[in-house]
Design brief:
By secondary structure, this protein is of the alpha/beta class. It catalyses: N(6)-[(R)-lipoyl]-L-lysyl-[glycine-cleavage complex H protein] + glycine + H(+) = N(6)-[(R)-S(8)-aminomethyldihydrolipoyl]-L-lysyl-[glycine-cleavage complex H protein] + CO2.
């Protein structure tokens, strides 16, 4: 008989909200206690005091859920099952590949790698910096160029960056014309056209044989090998271009370059491409790390990040991000690019793939792919079938005449996706996963025959011209030759992982970057083959699961933000900014307002904002901020009145970059609209808004959403990211499209901002899963606790440090700014000293000197527990006490734990201890560190040395030691 006191139902025992306390750090009881500690009777009272009433949502979000983790995975598997994974031999820069299991398990699926932040703090990033430096070396070796950056977003974006670089550096040819070979990938051509038009540049697509006729051109782009498979000698093109003062860009394939003469050896000025086929799944378009390599002369104009070799304060070799580090925040509208993130995690995978296989292993893969392609071509030629390629690597274009559609259908029935070329040909691109039996099947489909005995016969004649055949003159550094066994690679990966701080070790309190939990359940679908192995240009009926997921995710994101339509194409926050501004530009043009080209931007804005505005063809006008950190409404009214006829848009971040809910936001939006402009709300701080307020409701017209922040896609040590844009209905017709795989419902002529129609599609299931797990109630509570945690930290620290900006109630949003400037004036201790000293306590530093120089911006996120928040606050308070001791003279002004931080294990255990404070004070400033201590692998890195002596390759240890000794 049932005990009446314990009576319940199965429904009551089912807990669909079980995920909520797993995502949110403080318990409900702790949330109440924290609010009371701040001075409010409840969390709800704190939120009511902090958020302006005029922006609050009128009703809760209309979202399903929450669902349990098991329910979500089952539902997501239902979507995955609707995708059909066929053997795509479409090519066009996307190829199936084998991800080495040791790399998949220990990097791609390892939170020690994917939860790390961009390596702006090099002392706690030496592990991934080493692999990113190796990535650069890999690209330099294979392309034959002087230097390379540490990856870009995709091949089309990299080509666009190359176009603007050569236009900027070509002082001898100031034309506005950029010539593109007609056999470049079509998605690249579309992206180039979109990028060129707002900048006043002209993209002229020409026959490869007539690239320089007629007229002048500042640059030209060739594909090597071409999209249809042709391999041409670049020397003649390069020489002819240089004779006309035209700089030459080659888009290339790294696997092909294991057999082909490097573009650098043929005189090319810039080489770009995609490293996807180096062990990174196609993922329906991304994420993949593009590469960008160029000449030494152009290093100061190279976009993105360059990893360089420097030294630490003791002269030991150390790595760091070099000159390009957050260039946008320094040069703003004069920045050479708006690229802020890269695809670091994917660049790391590609570099490790090259290290695991080594030069000989990569060569074997290239030779096998080329051998199978040559075998197929010979069989087709023997059968009298016309193949358009005289020279080739892995791709053939086959003439099939009127039988094209029949052949395409027959191939589909046999499990293959062929490329449609014109009206009378098909394209076939082979890859490392291609088997002999598949090649025989393809030959049979085309009307040829390859007998089983051919697998044991001598290789068919090579398709690579004698003059372009390459020896193994690449990847000779020991890093590419020492880790070919799984044991060696496994230990190497663990050694590197242990050098870095990720979310697996401690909170990462970066203001403006939202480094919160990336739950394992959210990450699982990324490697499911139904999501990972789809080609981005596969037939629509093979990706119905993706389409259903996209449709639902778009609807959910619209509900979260108050917008009417959503684009999932931009594959980074910077690209979302750019896409949103292009939509505003097209909207004004459609209304005949071609003169509207002024973009107002507050002085506190993210540096990518002005850079994006310039790329979208707009002129930037800066609006001042008042003493409270808010947009100065008086100055704004003056600027709006002054530029009323030309006003295109304003870009504002909300809550503000200063960490405050500005009460004038509704009036600001109305003022801009009254003068014919559009309001762009930067979505960097949506983590404080979801469920509480919606930009689309309080007056914004467009926003980008940082899915890699608010919606839980991990940062990956500097990428991947996704930056979809939400728009009001009047801008919906101007969202980005794809010429290769058009997005239903959008005009065909719309701009293209990413190579793939849905950007980095394979990581979108992460955000879908997060929303499904949380539901409306959970998402709202996440925003509330993000605000609570930030205010708790500010409350604990305000008795020891100045909190720079607060709202009218004395509270902050989801981040707070600690002002170190008064302390520096009194003691000489800087924000950098505090940041580096935090490393000794086992923490990643907060955002340093942004948005205000001399400050630290702290964002704890909702996922951090009360214990971790207290541990961080205790560390900051202990550091403040050390500063007081400097101020009192108890610690030397120059020889103290802050100036000398971080302290390495080798320093603390050395026979010689030259400092006036104790080893214990250096290493164990709080007792808990004796149980779990993170040791920085290097001391403070010398940034000036690294910039003055830019070196971005992989030197041997003996070279580093010699340089250190010399210095």
């Amino acid at each position: 008989m049932t005990n009446p006191e314990c009576a319940t139902s199965l429904a009551q025992l089912t807990d669909d909200k079980a995920f909520l306390p797993r995502h949110i750090g403080p318990t409900p009881t702790q949330q109440a206690e924290m609010a009371q500690a701040i001075g409010y009777p409840s969390l709800e009272a704190l939120i009511d005091a902090t958020l302006p009433e005029q922006i609050r949502r009128a009703a809760p979000m209309n979202l399903e859920g929450p669902r349990s983790e098991q329910q979500v995975l089952e539902y997501l598997q239902h979507y995955a099952d609707q995708n059909v994974v066929k053997r795509s031999v479409i090519g066009m820069g996307y190829h199936d590949t084998f991800t080495p299991a040791v790399i998949q398990r220990n990097v791609l699926e390892n939170p020690g790698w994917y939860t790390a932040y961009t390596p702006y703090q090099p002392e706690i990033s030496q592990g991934r910096l080493e692999v990113l430096l190796t990535f650069q070396q890999m690209v330099m070796d294979l392309t034959g160029m002087d230097l390379a950056n540490a990856s870009l977003l995709d091949e089309g974006t990299a080509a666009a960056e190359a176009m603007t670089l050569v236009q900027r550096v070509n002082k001898k040819n100031r034309s506005k014309r950029f010539v593109v070979a007609g056999d470049c990938h079509p998605q690249t051509i579309a992206l180039l056209r979109s990028r060129a038009e707002p900048l006043g540049l002209m993209v002229d697509v020409a026959n490869p044989d007539e690239l320089l006729d007629p007229g002048e051109a500042f640059g030209l782009l060739v594909q090597y090998p071409g999209t249809y498979g042709n391999v041409v000698d670049l020397k003649a093109i390069t020489e002819a271009g240089h004779a006309r003062n035209t700089l030459v860009v080659a888009a290339s394939d790294l696997l092909a370059l294991t057999l082909l003469e490097s573009p650098g050896a043929q005189g090319v000025d810039v080489v770009v491409g995609n490293t996807q086929r180096f062990g990174v799944p196609m993922g329906f378009g991304g994420p993949h790390a593009a590469f960008f390599a160029t000449r030494e002369a152009y290093k100061r104009s190279t976009p993105g990040r360059i990893i360089g070799v420097s030294v630490d304060r003791h002269g030991n070799s150390a790595l760091r991000m070099a000159m390009q580090t957050r260039e946008q925040h320094i040069r703003r509208e004069k920045a050479t690019s708006n690229i802020c993130t890269a695809q670091a995690l994917l660049a790391i995978m590609a570099a490790l793939y090259a290290m695991y296989h080594g030069p000989r292993g990569l060569r074997r893969i290239g030779e096998r792919v080329h051998g199978l392609t040559s075998l197929l071509r010979q069989a087709l030629a023997d059968a009298g079938i016309t193949v358009r390629n005289e020279h080739w690597f892995d791709t053939l274009t086959v003439e099939v005449g009127e039988a094209q559609s029949t052949l395409i259908e027959a191939a589909l029935d046999s499990g293959f996706n062929l490329r449609v070329v014109g009206h009378d040909a098909v394209g076939i691109a082979l890859d490392e996963t291609t088997t002999f039996s598949e090649v025989a099947q393809l030959a049979t489909l085309l009307g040829a025959d390859i007998p089983p005995s051919a697998v044991d016969e001598q290789l068919a004649p090579s398709g690579i011209p004698e003059a372009l055949r390459r020896e193994v003159d690449y990847l000779q550094h020991p890093l590419f030759n020492d880790f070919h066994s799984e044991t060696a690679m496994l230990r190497y990966l663990k050694r590197l992982e242990n050098k870095d701080i990720s979310l697996t070790r401690a909170m990462i309190p970066l203001g403006s970057c939202t480094m919160k939990l990336n739950a394992t359940t959210e990450m699982l679908p990324v490697t499911w083959p139904e999501f990972a192995r789809l080609h981005p240009f596969a037939p629509m009926d093979q990706c119905r699961g993706y389409q259903a997921l996209f449709k639902e995710l778009e609807a959910w994101l619209c509900e979260c933000t108050g917008y009417d339509a959503m684009s999932l194409q931009p594959n980074a926050g910077s690209q979302g900014e750019y896409a949103g501004l292009l939509a505003i530009r097209r909207y004004h043009q459609a209304r005949g307002d071609h003169q509207r080209d002024i973009c107002l931007i507050p002085s506190s804005a993210h540096g990518t904002n002005p850079a994006s505005a310039v790329m979208a063809g707009m002129q930037v006008v800066i609006v001042a901020c008042d003493t409270q950190g808010n947009v100065d409404m008086s100055d704004l009214r003056d600027k709006v009145t002054q530029h009323s006829e030309r006003l295109a848009a304003i870009m504002v971040t909300y809550p503000s970059t200063h960490g405050v809910f500005e009460e004038s936001i509704v009036d600001l939006c109305a003022l801009i609209h009254d003068h014919g402009g559009q309001v762009y709300v930067d979505g960097a701080n949506l983590n404080a808004l979801i469920g509480l307020a919606a930009p689309g409701h309080f007056g914004a017209d467009v926003s980008h959403l940082n899915l890699h922040k608010t919606f839980c896609i991990p940062h990956g040590g500097g990428g991947p990211g996704m930056g979809p844009i939400g728009v009001r209905g009047h801008l919906a017709d101007y969202l980005p499209n794809s010429t290769v795989a058009p997005i239903p419902g959008l005009p065909a002529e719309n701009d293209t901002v990413s190579s793939a129609p849905y950007g980095s599609a394979s990581i979108l299931p992460i955000s879908w899963t997060y929303i499904a797990l949380m539901g409306a109630e959970g998402l709202t509570r996440a925003s509330e606790v993000a605000i609570l945690n930030a205010n708790y930290v500010a409350h604990r620290l305000q008795r020891h440090f100045d909190i720079l900006y607060t709202g009218s109630a004395g509270t902050v949003a989801h981040e707070c700014i600690v002002d170190i400037r008064p302390l520096k004036a009194a003691t000489g201790i800087s924000e950098e000293d505090v940041a580096k000293r935090l490393v000794d306590f086992g923490f990643h530093a907060p955002t340093m000197s942004f948005p205000v120089a001399g400050t630290l911006m702290i964002e704890p996120t909702e996922s951090e527990s009360l214990a971790e928040l207290d541990r961080f606050c205790d560390a900051m308070i202990a550091i403040r006490e050390e500063i007081r001791r400097v101020e009192s003279g108890a610690l030397d002004a120059e020889d103290n734990p802050l100036k000398n931080a971080p302290h390495t294990l080798s320093l603390v255990t050395s026979d010689n201890w030259p400092h006036s404070y104790t080893r214990q004070q250096a290493a164990y400033p709080v007792a808990s560190l004796r149980q779990d201590k993170y040791w920085a692998p290097v001391s403070r890195v010398d940034n000036v040395y690294g910039d003055r002596n830019l070196f971005c390759a992989c030197p041997g240890m003996e070279v580093w030691q010699e340089e250190s000794a010399t210095e």
